[in-house]
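Hi support team,

I've been running sequence recovery on a batch of backbones for a student project. Most finish fine, but this one hangs at about 90% for roughly twenty minutes before it completes. I'm not sure whether the input is malformed or the queue is just slow. I've pasted the structure tokens below so you can try to reproduce it. Let me know if you need the job ID as well.

Thanks,
M.K.
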């Protein structure tokens, strides 16, 4: 049997850094999308309130 090499801590750190960066990018994209949807929804609500009042 071949001896298993110990896990590489640098590889784990690199992976964690990539995951953290991807998470930040995804959160920023989702925040932008939510703000865009919110702006559209707010305009629709205001238009509906003006029609009712």
């Amino acid at each position: 049997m071949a001896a298993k090499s110990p896990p590489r801590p640098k590889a784990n750190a690199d992976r964690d850094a990539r995951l953290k960066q991807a998470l930040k990018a995804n959160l920023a994209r989702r925040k932008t999308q939510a703000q865009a949807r919110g702006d559209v929804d707010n305009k629709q609500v205001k238009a509906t309130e003006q029609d009712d009042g």
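--
Follow-up from support: It reproduced on our side and the slowdown came from queue contention, not your input. The CA atoms of residues 1 and 21 lie 38 Å apart. No action needed from you.
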